[in-house]
Amino acid sequence: MGSEVEKKAVFDMEAAKVVVKELRESFAAGKTKSYEWRVSQLKAILKMMEENEPQIIAALREDLSKPELESSIYEIAMLKNTCKLALKEMKHWILPEKAKTSLTTFPSSAEIVSEPFGVVLVISAWNYPFLLSLDPVVGAIAAGNAIVLKPSEIAPASSSLLAKLVETYMDSSCIKVVEGGVTETSALLEQKWDKIFYTGNGRIARIVMAAAAKHLTPVVLELGGKSPVIVDSDINLQVATRRIIAGKWGCNNGQACISPDYVVTTKDYAPKLVDSFKRELERFYGKNPLESKDLSRIVNSNHFARLSKLLDEDKVSGKIVHGGERDKTNLKISPTILLDVPQDSLIMNEEIFGPLLPFILVDKVEDSFDVVNSTGTKPLAAYLFTNDKKLKEKFVATVSAGGLVVNDTTVHLAVHTLPFGGVGESGMGAYHGKFSFDAFSHKKAVLYRGFAADAFVRYPPYTNGKLRLLRALVNGGLLDIIRALFGWSKA
Ligand code: NAD
Prior knowledge:
Distance between the termini: 92 Å
Strand content: 15-25%
CATH topology of the largest domain: Aldehyde Dehydrogenase, Chain A, domain 1
Bound molecules: nicotinamide-adenine-dinucleotide
Number of helices: 18
Number of domains: 3
CATH class of the largest domain: Alpha Beta
CATH superfamily of the largest domain: Aldehyde Dehydrogenase, Chain A, domain 1
Shape: globular
CATH architecture of the largest domain: 3-Layer(aba) Sandwich
Largest sheet: 7 strands, mixed
Structural class: alpha/beta
Helix content: 40-55%
Strand order of the largest sheet: 10-13-14-9-8-15-16
């Protein structure tokens, strides 16, 4: 009995093979391609989220002490919105898109047909375990794929609830959850997938991409990076401060991919900005933020130790101007501001992914762009607070990032008409709204011709006259075509 249980618990290469085979059979049978199947599965996710909100909130509390408001809005309501949008728009998304044709193929018509890739793997991260798992799954379903979802083992209560709910509510012949960590994910990555959608850090992304390369599998990599916030002096200070706090500590206590990572402001303005942060942070989280119910905890002791190391570095530890309190037992770190941090410090050379916010000081606000660009990597998001039109223009023109927001933080995530994804080190590919459908669809080019107007010029024997006419046809100049047809030379 014991060995049977153990056997079942091991998810190895053989088990992965079996899962993929079953999904391939379902896909080949055309199950996932029907519009009705896609609708039924999207409705199932909606129902699953509606009927299990308390359980989901409890799992998130267990894994992260995530405040109920954040769970309810950022994990559940946002996911439901994604489903509702797909249910409303999918009938348009799946239609072939008419394409123009050229004289070269006249007469002809053309269209772009969105076809599902086939069997896809979604690997997700721990910080928003429901949203980051199921948001891509919605896109994959809408596009007609069979799916394996691998949630993060770092949020075990959420992972196990997800596995249970997906099995109960969804078509398990086409959508499966595989739980586990490195061993299980490695077994999955050995298989041939038609697309891999990975959310997490850049180090593992390289492992994922290398595994995908073996089978020439395309990937979407949703990664992170150091997302800067540039703060000008000509602003509404209170609104700016609150919006930075909401994006930093109000998003899983800084453990979010688009959380502000560091602030760049001028030496002159910094004292005013820091004072404003102190005021608003106390207003939001009280005098003892370690006790606040409105802040998530650090996910585990490894991450707690990593963040502590960033704070304890010699050149940084004296720079704390607010917060810095830690509770190792309960994995809590209070909102912490560090002023005038050297750029060669550890904290400025890795993604913080926690409640620490260093400030970098410059002489003029225009110098901020150089600070951001000097990191040599492109962040997932970049933020600017200003009323200066020229500065906004320069920001958009010179800062390369997955997405930019002027005068707010993180909220671009909720705009489904904008693609969400990184560039360079922050990732490749994008999703949200129709971009999710596109991320999981192959855009098949289809050209239709009849048998009329069979152009003799394509066929041998090749002559100079045919060459002239073909050249004119390919170049598309009407006058040249007439000239070639009548054998007139250009001179
Ligand atoms: P994580 O530890 O949960 O890892 C992500 C996934 O990789 C998990 O499913 C995990 O099981 C898998 N994994 C771990 N080791 C592996 C290995 N050796 N081989 C194969 N798979 C393996 O999450 P994380 O990486 O700590 O997440 C934080 C990072 O993710 C940050 O950099 C953050 O910015 C980024 N992130 C990005 C987004 C986005 O949407 N762009 C969202 C959330 C997090």
